[in-house]
Backbone:
């Protein structure tokens, strides 16, 4: 269903795993006029080789951005690049996918220190907060261009102007007793729970601009973080996530949904 998404799309953490698959499926299935901005820390490094290959495969459709979610100057520079490239256009969809986890799983209490908590929060919470704040003018522009003021109302969607924060079922305080034994991951869990609150707050704040803000859990996916025992491939997860994004509307603002569209309790 990702063919219904369109316009200018920014994906953070796009050089591997879910982010890379998001770029690939968006490039494959979206409308011809769609342009994808793929953010990663080191665009010219060995870790971005697959992303650069995608850019070559889809000429003119993908712009790779140097974007470090823990560096405010890097975010500011990325905003400037996107703004210059889209001209009078706006940013239709921001997918905050970039995230880190430390220490390595299971991330027990004894293995976790202050540095782990601070670095994870900086990337997983402060980064998405700042990038939404700094790209807000471009998101507003897209909302205004895609749907004239007189036609607004129940019109928010990922086709017009939206922020999708990639979260996790591990962020759910309600579900923690079910999931804690599998992986303690104190910094990651706490950061994603905080990201959920940022999502909820920005959903309320940005509603006046007709910008949809929602959090999505991609499922347990076979990535570097998810591990080889995970039940979903990146292709399956992203296909589901894009289908969910295509169906979102006003009623979904501020929610935490999974890759099949099911609500996850806070």
Residues:
């Amino acid at each position: 269903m990702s063919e219904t998404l369109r316009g200018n799309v920014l994906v953070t953490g796009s050089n591997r795993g879910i982010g890379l698959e998001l770029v690939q499926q968006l490039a494959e299935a979206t409308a011809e006029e769609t342009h994808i901005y793929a953010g990663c820390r080191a665009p010219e490094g060995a870790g971005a080789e697959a992303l650069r290959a995608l850019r070559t495969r889809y000429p003119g459709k993908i712009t790779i951005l140097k974007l470090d979610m823990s560096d405010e100057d890097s975010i500011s520079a990325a905003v400037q690049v996107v703004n210059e490239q889209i001209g009078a256009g706006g940013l239709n969809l921001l997918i905050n996918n970039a995230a880190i986890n430390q220490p390595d799983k299971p991330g027990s209490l004894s293995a976790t220190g202050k540095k782990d908590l601070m670095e994870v929060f900086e990337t997983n919470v402060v980064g998405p907060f700042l990038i939404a704040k700094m790209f807000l003018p471009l998101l507003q522009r897209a909302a205004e261009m895609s749907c004239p003021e007189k036609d607004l109302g129940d019109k928010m969607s990922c086709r017009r102007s939206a922020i999708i924060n990639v979260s996790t079922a591990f962020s759910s305080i309600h579900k923690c007793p079910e999931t804690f034994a599998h992986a303690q991951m104190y910094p990651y869990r706490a950061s994603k729970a905080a990201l959920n609150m940022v999502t909820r707050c920005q959903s309320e704040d940005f509603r006046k601009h007709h910008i949809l803000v929602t959090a999505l859990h991609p499922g347990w996916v076979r990535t570097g973080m998810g591990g080889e025992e995970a039940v979903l491939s990146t292709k399956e997860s992203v296909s589901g996530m894009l289908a969910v994004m295509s169906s979102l509307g006003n009623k979904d603002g501020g929610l935490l949904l999974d890759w099949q569209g099911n609500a996850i309790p806070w």
Remarks:
- The longest strand covers residues 35-40.
- Strands lie at 8-11, 35-40, 62-66, 93-96, 162-166, 212-217, 256-258.
- The mean pLDDT is 93.
